[in-house]
Each structure stands twice: as structure tokens, then as C-alpha cells.
Amino acid sequence: MPTKFTIKNDEISERDWGEVDKSDIWQTFLRAREEGAEGLASAIREMYAVVKAPIDDNLREADCWGPHHEIRQDGTLVVNRRGVIAAVGALAGARAEPNLTPDEKREAARHLAKHYRAMGLELPDTLKELTGEIAYPLQMDIIGEMAVEDVPVAPWADVKSLQENDPNPMEVVVAVPVGKSKRGWFYTEEALRAIEKTVNEQGLPGFMGHQKSDDVDHEFPEPVTHWVGAKFEDGKLYVRGVIDKSADDLKRWIKGNAVRTVSIFGIPRLKHKSNGEIEVVDYQPLSIDWTPLGRAGMETQVVAIGEMDSVNQGEEKAGEVMDVVQKVYGELTELLGVEGEELVSSVEKMKAAFEEQKRKECEALIDQVIGEKVAGEVAQILVKKLLKYDGEPDKEKIEGEIENILNDPEVKEALSKIYAVNPPVVGEEQNSKLVVKRVRI
Length: 441
Prior knowledge:
Largest sheet: 5 strands, mixed
Number of helices: 13
Shape: flat
Number of strands: 17
């Protein structure tokens, strides 16, 4: 029983997470609490992605979510790579919706993201979404159901100054309804009202196309539109924008109906329901940008040379991918009779077995081809050492690689010396001359 716990996050265990006894982790902590082990609170906080209650004598195992470390006999905690990945899968609802509040989900995501970065892994979308490091667009169009003046200008905005010295001033209104996108996310009234609040309190810039998520915190492109007012009415959010004086091309495109969609770029707050549906219950908008026609997503409109239609860029494709992932997950669960972490462990073992079988087949094929092309055990050993092949078991490709080796002048010279000293046996006779089997050297 360790008397002191230490944490080594720079050491990564590759042990199969399915082999780690999670219940034993908690029992170790209970015994350590009884014996007053040093560093226990820090160990518990590091072991789990989130601890939902104060770390004291009343803490229960149910208060701790997402174990992803191993405890060695000396009390050292080391990160288990597969444990971290399994915890992220559980956070995304791979087995069932985790019993966590939105704030607890974000706390867990930040904790797990720390380990992903330490391991040099790219953050999966689940962590990016929950930590606010990925933005999703919500697209909109222009039609004509509401006049520009029907959407009041926010108190902070000075439209007159924005349009000063502009010989061709233009304003637009865009609109997006409450409802489900083609990705399958349901955008709630609360999410749209959050966008309304942001526009009316501070406004939003509008660019030609979206920024990259990685550039949002330090880059500021030149706006082509200034969104100066918003209102929610009859199940739709309407946003009013002033086209910048510098954007003559955009004005012409809008007038010609060649450009009539915009997309709200921002960070959604998601709620995963027990029936598998996903609701967008809050939304932190970053910009409302002009996008090409035909993007998939919400049914939206642009009204009054300005109505707004919201499309989540790439939602349709993402939805198709998720459908396939869920179908495969269901089939594997039914086939193997396990789910969640056990399913991940089983698939990893199957993959390892497949790779090992492929390696053995390739090794046997290499030996076969070398035996057909090169005479003499010593020469065969040399050629095999020189062969660097890690592809699929493909006889034609292996033959080609061996031919390249045998045609190398230095290899020819080396083989000549080998055969001079160790002539290969041909039938019952030994010949001191260079002898190979149907090989060009």
C-alpha cells in the first residue's frame, strides 16, 4: 500500500486499458485515505477527468468520472494512452450519455485535452467543441420577407458613420429559424437568442468566408459587413447588417443575386439527449460571414436585400460520417457482445492479430521469392537484410524490390565475393563460380 502518491504525466503507458482494474483504483484510494497517505487529493484529482464533489472523507466513487491513469505499487500515477482515448469516447457518449453537467463536461474535456497535447495527439472534435477550440458555422440566406427598417439598430451602432462618404450604401437582413439542420443538430430558440443578444450588445464582423479556428484568437481580417442589430420573432432570428464602403464587389454580387447566403461562425454548446438527438442550447457567435451558395445545413433565408439563412458548413457530410460510425459501432457491439471500453479493447486486439498475421504472410512470401531468385544461404541472408519492405504481401512488388537490390553494382560485387568463398550447392555438385537461380546480377 503506497504511503505517498506521485504523478508522472510525462510517462505514457501503452498497456491495454481493458486489463486495468478500475474498481481496484478506487479501493486503493480508500485504503490510502484510511492510512493517511500523502498526496492523495492530488492523485484523485489527476486520476479522474472530473471530480464532482469535494475531495474529503465523504467522497464516493460515483463522484469521480473518467479514470485514465494507472497506479504503480510505489504510488506513482502514469497516464494510460488507451485510457485517455476511452475517456474521450465516453465523454462523446460512445456507450451512453455521461452523467455530467455542461460545466463538468467542459472541465473533463480540458483535463483530457491536456493529456492529448502531452502525447502529441491532435484533439478530437469532442474536445475541441467542449473546450471552445473549434467553431461551427450556422448558415443563412437573403430573401425578402422583412424590410431592413423592421430590424432595429442596436444602441451601440452608428450606421450614419459607417455609411459616411459611401456613394452606394447597402444594408441587408438575414434570418435563420429554430429547427433541425441536415447534420441532425436541433438549433433551439435559446441558441438563436444568444446570437441575438451578442449582436445587440456588441455587434459582429462579417468576412468573405470563415477564418480558420486556429487563427481566431490572433487574426482580424478586414470586415466587409457590420452586423448592427438583431431580433427574434415568430421562431426566426433576424440580423441586420451594413455592407462596408470598401466592399463594392460584394454589393454588386448581392444585387445580382449571385451571393445571398451568410453563415454564423461560432462555438455551439451541445446537449446530448437520451434518444441520441443533439440540441444546440447555446451559441457563442464569432462572426457572420458571406459564403458560397449550396452549402448544406439549416433552411435559412436572406430577407429585404437581406434576410438570413443559416447553414452549418460541412454538416451534411459530417452527418453522413456519423451515421456510418454509429452503424459500425452497433454492428460491432452486436457481433462481439461487448461495448464501450471493452469494445475498444476487443477491436484493438483484433487489429493487432490482423497485423501480426499480415506480417507473417509477408515474411513467408519474402523468403519464398528470395529462395526462387537467389542461390546460396549466405547470399540469401544478405539480400534479406538489404530488403526494406513493409508493404502488403504482394509477390510482384517484392520481386521488384529484390531485383533492384540485385542490380545494384555494390551488391553484385558483394555477391561475387560470397560465391567465390561459399559457392552454392547445385544438385550434388559444388561450383566455385558465381551461381544463382534465374537472377540477373
